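Protocol step 4 of 6: record predicted structures for both targets in the notebook before any analysis. Target 1:
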Amino acid sequence: MAIDLILPVSITFGLVAWSLIIYWYIHPILKDHPVEKALEPFLLLHSFRYIGLMFLIPGVTTEILDDRFSQPAAYGDLIAAVLAFAALAAIRFNASWALVSVWIFNIWGAADLLNAVVRGILFAPDGHLGAAYWIPATIVPLLLVTHVYIFILLARRVQMNRRLIF
């Protein structure tokens, strides 16, 4: 297999596998929970996005990565982790702005991942990720799938609110 196909194939398999895990195992458990409670494990998961800072450490990757990829990917993930923690705290403390903070986190986090994927394709040559390869091959698909699921949960909450108003 050509080296430039390995990462896209890995990401595709990851997206399918994580989608099935969410659909078959996670959603049946969370579907009857209040939206706020269902969001908590996903926000905790995204609090680990600080791991993207490893793109800035020489030696973790086989080559020093282009700053056009590494800087936005690393700091975008760090901001996503902070926003996830803030949203989680808002939910746990029943803040009136809790769901707004989840929307902000989810929009930022999804956009950050998509930006990192595009920049990775453009500026991180195949094979240069070294030990950090597992992030886009395994973790990014999980994070993307959970962003979609969070959007679904938030939309469900909006629909419930509409029913109450009308």
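Target 2:
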Amino acid sequence: MGVRRFLRRLAGERGDKAAQLAAKAVRAVAFGIVVTALAQTALSGIGLGVARVPHASLLTAVAFVLCIAQLGPLLVMAPATIWLYTSGAAGRGTVLFVFALVAATLDAFLRPVLIKRGADLPSFLSSPASLAG
């Protein structure tokens, strides 16, 4: 509330609107990151389970932490996929590879849509490259 008052004094009605837009943008970005991370984690967990990777629940939890940190699930999925291929389970490795690709690319599509829905920002501000920092 203090920020809005300060900006209202500083820039009048435009300052108040800028403060409201900033608050909406922060909420929308946080919502976009969390929901995208949940979707990526769900796909990763399903893929790990379908491919019968040992300790799939632990790997899914690690993938969730990585997705929240915006590193993506590939740091978990790629080694698991390689392990499946090298252990002679090429079919399960291929299934996990497909799940990994879908989970990793989901970030480029879902997050900008969620952010755009939550705040009226230009689309280049809600793209993954601009949010990665």
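Step 5 preliminary note on target 2. Residues 2-119 form one domain. The helical segments are 2-11, 13-50, 56-68, 74-86, 90-118, 128-132.
Proceed to step 6 after PI sign-off.
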